[in-house]
Amino acid sequence: MSWQQFVDESLLGTSQVAKASIHGLNGERYASSSGFVVLPSEAQVLIAAITKDPSPTYYKGVCLNRTKYFVIRVDPGHSLYCRKGNEGAVAVLTSQCLLIGAYSEGMTPGCCSAVTEKLADYFRVNGF
């Protein structure tokens, strides 16, 4: 399965994720949903917050697709949760990639997180 198929089928195909993106650990975008362009620099900020020091992101926020989100939680070495109004996202780190799943108004944040985390678990089990 290609990276784009994971975005289209495993994330967007659940109807629990509105937008999604998969990046390498250097921030390079492997695949994303239409119109959801997370820049490599934006992905690198997420990776640094998850793997190093999340403190700056708590007061500066993070950007996804050039939109600023407020960070609400970071699980060191694992994930970052952010939101803006009734929308938000979860970024989950695996050994080789960063998955970003975003939800929109009317969607359940917990369901979006669960779907994104489940795909990350699949990647971990399979060495990604």
From TrEMBL:
State the protein's purpose. Answer: Involved in male fertility. Required for manchette development and acrosome biogenesis during spermiogenesis. Binds in vitro to phospholipids, including phosphatidylinositol 3-phosphate (PtdIns(3)P), phosphatidylinositol 4,5-bisphosphate (PtdIns(4,5)P2), phosphatidylinositol 4-phosphate (PtdIns(4)P) and phosphatidic acid (PA). Contrary to other profilin family members, does not bind to actin in vitro.
- Give the originating organism: Nematostella vectensis (Starlet sea anemone)
Bilayer-crossing regions: none
Alphabetized GO MF terms: actin monomer binding; lipid binding
Note one Pfam family from the annotation.
Profilin
Q: Which UniProt keywords apply?
A: Actin-binding, Cytoplasm, Cytoskeleton, Developmental protein, Differentiation, Lipid-binding, Spermatogenesis
Lineage top rank: taxon: Eukaryota
CC terms in the record's Gene Ontology section: cell cortex; cytoskeleton
| Quaternary structure and partners | Occurs in many kinds of cells as a complex with monomeric actin in a 1:1 ratio.
CDD domains (UniProt xref): PROF
GO biological processes: cell differentiation; spermatogenesis
**Main localization category:** cytoplasm
Cellular compartments annotated: Cytoplasm, Cytoskeleton
Q: What is this protein called?
A: Profilin
**What PANTHER family does this protein's entry cite?**
PROFILIN
Q: Per the similarity annotation, which family is this?
A: Belongs to the profilin family.
